Amino acid sequence: MGHGHHHHHEDMPQAAGDVPAVLDASIPDSELSPGDVSRRGFLRRAGLLGAAAAAGGALAGAGTAHAHGDDDDHAGFDGYDRHGHGRPLGNGYKWLAGDHHIHTQFSSDGMYRVSDHVRHASAYGLDWMVITDHGSTGHVKIGVDKVNPDIRAARDDYKDVLVFQGLEWNIPAAEHGTVFVHPGANEVAVLKEFENTFDGSVVGAVDPSLVTEALAIAGVKFLGEQVTKRRVQDALFLANHPARNGIDSPHEIRGWRDANPRIAIGFEGAPGHQAAGIAKPTGGGSARGFYGNAPGAASFPGYPLESYRTWGGFDWMTSTVGGLWDSLLAEGKAWWITANSDSHVVYEETAKRPDNTDFNANGYHFDPVYGQPASLTPGDFWPGYYSRTHVGARNFGYAAVMEALRAGRVWVDHGGLISALDVQVRAGGSGVTLGDSLVVRRGQRAELTIRIKLANTPNWANFVPTLARVDVIRGAVTGAVSDKDTFKAPDTKVVKSFEVNKSTGTVAFTYDLGPVDQPFYVRLRGTDGNRTAPGYHGPAVDPAGPAIDVVGDADPWKDLWFYANPIWVYPR
Predict the structure, then answer these.
(1) 538 Cβ contact list (under 8 Å, min separation 6)
(2) H/E element holding 525?
(3) 296, exposed or middle or buried, with CB in 10 Å at 0-12, 13-18, 19+?
(4) Residue 102, C-beta contacts closer than 8 angstroms, at least 6 positions apart
(5) Residue closest to 522 by CA, chosen among 473, 478, 571
(6) Burial of 423 (0-12, 13-18, 19+ CB in 10 A)
(7) pLDDT digits (tens, 9 = 90+) for 254-292
(8) C-beta separation of 86 from 253 below 8 A
(9) Alpha helices in 433-564 (DSSP H)
(10) Which residues are paired to 496 by β-bridges?
(11) pLDDT digits (tens, 9 = 90+) for 457-500
C-alpha cells in the first residue's frame, strides 16, 4: 500500500502453530524484526493480541494494517500482460490466474495427458495449475509415482505455467478436496504417505470403520507436520464441490479449518463441470456443475433442498448471502473461495479413451485417440477456458502462489467477465486489499474503493462480456459460535449495488463504510445481469442475487459472475 504499515512479511519467523510469529507469545520480542515488534506492541495496546492468537481468525490468518491520520493518494491502476493478469495492480501484487482441480489419464474417469492440460492452460491464459487425480487404491500404488515425471517434464517445457502436483482427497466421512504441496524432492513421498494413511477410499478398502471425521482432522494435521518438519516447503488443502451431495457438514468444515488454518484454507466457491447444464441437443442437458443430486443417508439433515443446486454457477454455500461462507467470515475466520474446471473430459471433445485401455490393470488410461466426432455430452472445459482463480502473488513462483492463496488475496470469475479487479478498504492514509484486516481508531470512518478493468477482448466463447452490476456485501463480526453446525450469518446483507453504465475501459466506485464502531467485513460480487432473483434469505438480505440453476437448461455463458474474498475492519 506504500504507507509503511505493510503485512504478510515474507521474512517473518513463523510460529510453531497456525498463527504468525508476531501473535505467538512464546516467541520473544528479541526474535522479531523491529517492524513486527512495533506491530505486536500495537496489537497488545489495542487489546487484540490475545484474542487474535487464540481465535486463529482474520487477524491471525490474514495480517493487519492500521490506519493513521495522514492522507495519501490512491495507488495507480495498471494494465495486465498477455494473459490479462500479470502486471501489478495498484497494490503491487502480480495477479496470476490458476486452477487447482484438474484430472489426467491417471484418474479412472479422466483422459488427458499432463501435457494436454498444461498446453491448453497456457493457451487459455493460466499462470498456475494443480494436477489432482483421484485418490484411490490404484492411484496410490501407481499414479502418484508415474504422473510425477510428466509433471516435471511440463515444468521444463512450459516455463510460463507453474505446475503443482497434488491429488483429489476422498475426505474421510465427507466429500472431496484438493491437496497439493510445493515442488521438491519429497513431493511424491509425502503425497503417497498422505494418501495411504488418510484417503477415505484407500483406508476404507482396508477397514471402513476407520473412515471417520477424526481421520480427516488427522490428515490436515499431518500435512502441517510435513511442513514443520521441512519434508515439503508448503502444503494446502481446499474442499471441493462442498454442497454437491450435502455431506460436508458445517462442523466438519469448521473442524478442518481449525485443525490447521495454514493448511485448510477454503473451498470451491464455484465447482467445475460448468458446461454440464447446457441444454440438449447442443449439450448434455444435465445439471450445471453436476449439482443435480438430492439428500442421501450421509447428508447433513439441516441443509435445504436448494443447497443441492448451483446458483449462477456457484455453490450454495458461497452464493447465499448470509449463508455458510458468511457464517465463517462472521466468526472472523479466514476461509477463502476459489473457482476451477474440475476438468476430466471437455465439452465438444474430438478424442476418446482407446478401446484397449484398462485402468484397473494399469492404474492409468492409455493416451487418448483423436479424430473422433465431437461429443456434446461432457460437462467440462479446459483449464482457463471458463473459470479462473486470480491470486495476488509477490512474484511468479510456487511459494508466492501458495502464500497468496493462504492470505486470501483471491478473486474468481467466470467467462472472462472482467479483466482486472483492485479492491481496498482505506482509513486515513492506510489501506488493505483482499484477505487482509484493517485496524482503525474507533469512530474513524472507513472507505471501500473498487476499480475494475472491464473486459476488452472476446472470451473463449467469442463475445465480450458486459459487467452490469457490482454488489457490496457487509457482515458483522460476532465471534465464535457455540453451535458448530450453524450456517447462517443473520447480520450479513447486500448494502450497496453499483450499476455499471459503460462497456469498455475502467470503472471506479467508492462506498463510505461509515464510522467504525464494531468489527465487520465486506466482500464483493459482480454480474452480467442476465439471470438474477432474490437470494435464498429473501430480498431484504439479497434483492438481486444469482438465480438457482435449472437442471437441463443452464447455459454457463449466459450467466456470468465474479466474487472476491473479504476484507475485515476492526476498531481499536
Answers:
(1) none
(2) strand 520-527
(3) exposed
(4) 117, 129, 130, 131, 132, 340, 341, 342, 343, 383
(5) 473
(6) buried
(7) 999 999 999 999 999 999 999 999 999 999 999 999 999
(8) no
(9) none
(10) 472
(11) 999 999 999 999 999 999 999 999 999 999 999 999 999 999 99
Kindly state the cell numbers that stand for 530: 442476465
Greatest Cα pair distance, the chain, in angstroms, is 71
Q: How far is CA 217 from the centre of its chain?
A: 20
Cell numbers that stand for 142 in this block: 501407481
CB 474 within 8 A of CB 492: yes
3-state secondary structure of 361: helix
Q: Which amino acid is at 87?
A: R
C-alpha cell at 556: 454457463
> How far is 241 from 315, CA to CA, in rounded Å?
7
Nine-digit cell at 389?
482463480
Q: Which of 491, 543, 558, 549 is nearest to 521 (CA)?
A: 491
Strand partners, 432: 425
The 3-class SS string of 364-379 reads CCCCCEEEEEEECCCC
Residue closest to 116 by CA, chosen among 164, 167, 151: 151
pTM (2 d.p.): 0.87
Helices (H) and strands (E) in the chain, counts: 14, 24
